[in-house]
Amino acid sequence: MNKKILGAFVAVLTVAMLTLPMSVVFAAKPMDVSGQWFFTGMMVPPYTDIKNAGANRLATQHNTGEYDVGPILGTFEQHIYMKIHFGDPEVVKNLPPNPMDWPPNNYNWHIERTFTGTVDGKSGTLTMNLEAKGSSLGYPGSLTGTWVIIGGTDQLANLHGQGTWTNLGMGRLAYEGKIHFDP
Q1: Quick one: pLDDT at residue 162?
Q2: Which pTM value belongs to this model?
Q3: φ, ψ dihedrals at 148, nearest 5°
Q4: pLDDT of residue 17
């Protein structure tokens, strides 16, 4: 292509681009967050839907809690789906009924949480997923994991965020991460 044709093409393209309506969407700058939550129901709710799968025990729990420290303030309820790995199917077959009496194990938790309250002064509901991995005797006292916001309503409809969390003990947990509101 010769230089005159290339120059004419660039000029036409530039004029065409300038005549198109332009809208630029900027995401809000992420905000650092940290705070705490605690459980308001039973700290160790009963396991339900318990199934054995080889060297694994599968179980669910349901509990409630409250965010009381930080920019996230309000209540939540959650469903916990656990896969607890004991390394040997015979161990799983012979587990005592009380989880506090179970031998050391490796666990994976998937938690689906529904939050109602405020985030940085804006109100609504949030749906969050939390994940955790670790090992423990009985109830996982060394629980750590990640969280991500997957949806919201009202003033929280455009809130996005993710971060990490850890168990502080006695039913109190701490979180940190980043959140931002999109336009």
Answers
A1: 97
A2: 0.77
A3: -145, 140
A4: 42
3-state helix, strand and coil shares in percent for the chain, rounded to the nearest 5? 15, 55, 30
User: Number of C-alpha atoms within 13 angstroms, CB side, residue 168?
Assistant: 11
Question: In the chain, how long is the greatest CA-to-CA distance?
Answer: 85
3-state secondary structure of 15: helix
Task: Work out whether the CA dihedral 69, 30, 182, 146 comes out positive or negative.
Answer: negative
CA of 16: how far to CAs of 4, 22, 25, 171, in Å?
Answer: 18, 12, 21, 61
Q: Which fold has domain 26-181?
A: AOC barrel-like (2.40.350)
Asked if pLDDT for residue 21 goes beyond 60, the answer is no
* 3-class DSSP state of 44: coil
Q: Do the Cβ atoms of 37 and 166 come closer than 8 Å?
A: no
pLDDT tens per residue across span 103-133: 777 788 899 999 999 999 999 999 999 998 8
Residue located via tokens 């669910």? 60
Domain ranges, ordered by start, for the chain: 26-181
